[in-house]
Amino acid sequence: MKQKVLNWAKRFNTFCFLDNHQYQLEPHTVECLLAAGIKRQLTANTGNALGQLQTFLGAGNSWLFGHLGYDLKNEIEQLSSSNPDKIKFPDLFFFEPEVVIRLSATELVIESDNPHLVYKGITEVCAATDEVGPYSFTIQSLISQKEYISIIKKLKQHILRGDCYEINFCQEFFAENAVIDPFSVYKKLSKVSPNPFSALYKLNDKWLICASPERFLKRKGPQILSQPIKGTAKRILNSAAEDQKSKVGLLNSAKDRSENVMVVDLVRNDLAKICKEGTVKVDELYGIYSFPQVHQMISTVSGILKEEVPFSEIIRATFPMGSMTGAPKKRVMQLIEQYERTKRGIFSGAIGYISPDGDFDFNVVIRSIMYNASSGYLSFEAGSGITYYSDPELEWEECVLKAEAIKYVLEKI
Predict the structure, then answer these.
(1) Structural domain count of the chain
(2) Are 401 and 293 in contact (CB under 8 A)?
(3) CATH number reported for the structural domain that contains residue 62 in this entry
(4) CB–CB of 184/7 below 8 Å?
(5) Residue 180 in contact with residue 378, Cβ under 8 Å?
(6) CA–CA separation, 3 vs 163, rounded Å?
(7) What percent of the chain is predicted at pLDDT more than 90?
(8) Do the beta carbons of residue 266 and residue 310 sit within 8 Å?
(9) pLDDT, tens digit (0-9, with 9 covering 90-100), for 170-179
(10) Which residues contact 7 (CB under 8 A, 6 or more apart)?
(11) 282 forms bridges with which residues in the sheet?
């Protein structure tokens, strides 16, 4: 049924499909959400985008789906961005959908003006997704290994000088004149990396094909929580003993623990701005979770929101997420702009939903393919957190490891 629902969405110019692949969830939990069609929408770029979003939220009491682009940082911290952007997602986009579909292992719930017509369309659609390829385009790296290592060494000098403590540095992989079927790519990526914050998102000619393992921010009632990821180790799937060794090595890594705890402290400080005094706590520190290609170190930080905190202020306090910036946040965002070669755009931003009762859940846009169907430009980014303990060659290897699943999908589909 999931594939039928997704294939039914092909008729829409804009839709958002969120899929958790039932990863470590209780039975009967909603497995995926589809929002399709537009009743009303908001497109905004940095300036007063969050203010416009708050007004948009106040104009209705409905489901909203959409994204927050990384470069909203420019209005939150009065920064600027001048690097090129060839994908061209707006800095912010939200829409009230015509149709919302909630799918679990046991039920299909349709919210629409004519749910019976929607259900008929879903049941009549073909469930299969035609496989295409292999694709003929060439994936290139914007930064060579030599250049990457040189940049990491410069960033370590910034750390030694006290400019920052930890910084997330990313590089772009890209292809030009690419022609892909995003549905087929998403289907293959979901097989290779069925991660809990996956998404297929279409905004006219712009696509996000996402296999994110990371949650940015979730609200349920008065509680808010964030689950930053810092620390990665490769899975050794042909040897249980070696795989366990890799997992234990990650848990005991001084570099990864240092990186993780710095981001946890940053998230605690962010949440303290919007939560009741004394309620912010670390629910789990250095949790090790296994995904198809990698083990990840994930921590959970939560708090109880102050009364009447608007959504826009929650985002101002917490965005961009610490796991994709570093500490101190404003200074490292300046360094990211200085040393990276590409405007991040929707990458390392967030995609998700706000429910009619004000609850919300947003991921971190990583492990993702961005694609502009009009220009044929395809892009994905990978990076890592740089600390005093970072080895530039190992950081390059971690970056390449994170890109492997996406390269495999694009080269082997």
Answers:
(1) 1
(2) yes
(3) 3.60.120.10
(4) no
(5) yes
(6) 49
(7) 77
(8) no
(9) 999 999 999 9
(10) 125, 126, 127, 129, 183
(11) 301
